[in-house]
Amino acid sequence: MAESFENKNLEILLKKLPDTEGPQQIELLADLTVAFREINPEKVIEFGKQGLELLQDSKEKKLKLVILNEICRAYHYLSKYQTSLEYGFKALELSNASNDDLHKATAINRIGTTYLNMALFNQALECFMQALKIYENIGDKRGIAGLYINIGLVCSKIGDREKALEYYSKAMRTLKEVNDKRSLAILYNNIGSIYNDSKEHKTALEYFRKALEIKKKIGEKFRIAHTLTNIGTVYMDTENYEKSLEYFFQSLNIQEEIRDEYASVETLRNIGYSYASTDRIAEAVKYIQQGLSIAKALKVPDLIMSCYESFSAIYKKKKDFKKAFEYYKQFKKLDDEIFTKESSRKFNELQISYETEKKEKESEIYRLRNIELVKTNENLTKALAEIKTLFFM
């Protein structure tokens, strides 16, 4: 495999580190947190904390904001959500104090992403809507597209697939305009998931393969694993279980290597379901139990809920209806707590507020432009009158 530009750039940064000091060293450490973003979250935290230590007595704020936001993201990838939020709120506080809208939007977006993984959908949506307004105000098209993707993901999570596709469509137009292939791969992956949920497996597979092709070129293991799991899900849903297991185990190997515990729960659950569907019940229970243990350690309700649902299905297949019913009750209890009508109502309420504010801003811009045009016309009329006076004198 040819070495990517990003890997060469990373090597250059690492070679420079021992020979730098002072402000240059801090800048280099900040660059390393960005360079390791999709490769190794532990390295992001290691270099980031070194940078923060050197910045303790410094008035430099932009580099500190970069580092805080990257550490927030790294802890998110490691499924350490409370720590992720701590760094996210530190970044938000500093960006408010320094009137830095770009880093403020980044912090709010990353806080929202962490809330999303914690199944706190209302809080996530509020963050995404706030960040979207900021990106629109500063004209950051990549940021706007990323927020469309995240809002679409919330819609998908609360079961509004039509609204999710609407936001994904907006994101696709913007991403093609700015040629952001990395984000386009994420978008293809999310669209594929919606089509797979709608039983349109052929279309889903097309989108997943598009996503995988881009991700392999970029070399992001975290996202490659995610798409491999999704391709496995298509084969599982079409009852090609041996093929699904092939993709699930490829994904699991990567997830264990990069310590992506959150994503591994879904993969383990899918492995269990594939084994159960081919009557290998003992193996199914083993993998789902492994997933449930991780989900409980992470304290993520929707992951725990999905494992309960899988156990209920397996014990029903074994005709152990008592256990099947016990797990179903635990699943239903969590399901009722997480996916309430309140989530849907909150989304509609926030969207209406966002659209109203946007229209009000557009009306104000239109009004101000009209005032400018009137003034311009008055000035032109006055100038013409002066010219005529001079001409006829």
Task: Describe, in plain words, how this protein is organized in 3D.
- It is a single chain.
- This protein has 393 residues and is an all-alpha fold.
- It has a domain at 1-103: Tetratricopeptide repeat domain (Serine Threonine Protein Phosphatase 5, Tetratricopeptide repeat).
- The chain has 18 helices and no strands.
- Helix 7 (121-138) runs parallel beside helix 18 (341-392), helix 10 (181-197) runs antiparallel to helix 11 and helix 10 (181-197) runs parallel beside helix 12 (221-237).
- The radius of gyration is 25 Å and the shape is globular.
Structure, briefly:
This protein is an all-alpha fold and 393 residues long. It contains 18 helices and no strands.
Class from helix and strand fractions: mainly alpha
Shape call: globular
Total helical segments: 18
In CATH terms, the superfamily of one domain is: Tetratricopeptide repeat domain
**H-E string:** HHHHHHHHHHHHHHHHHH
The value of Rg in angstroms is: 25 Å
Tell how many strands the DSSP assignment holds: 0
Question: How much of the polypeptide forms β-strand, as a percent range?
Answer: under 5%
CATH topology of one domain: Serine Threonine Protein Phosphatase 5, Tetratricopeptide repeat
Helix content: over 70%
Give the second-level CATH assignment, the architecture of one domain.
Alpha Horseshoe
Mean of the pLDDT scores?
85
The major pleated sheet works out as: none
CATH top level label of one domain: Mainly Alpha
**Through-space gap between termini:** 83 Å
Give the low-confidence spans.
1-6, 387-393
Oligomer: single chain
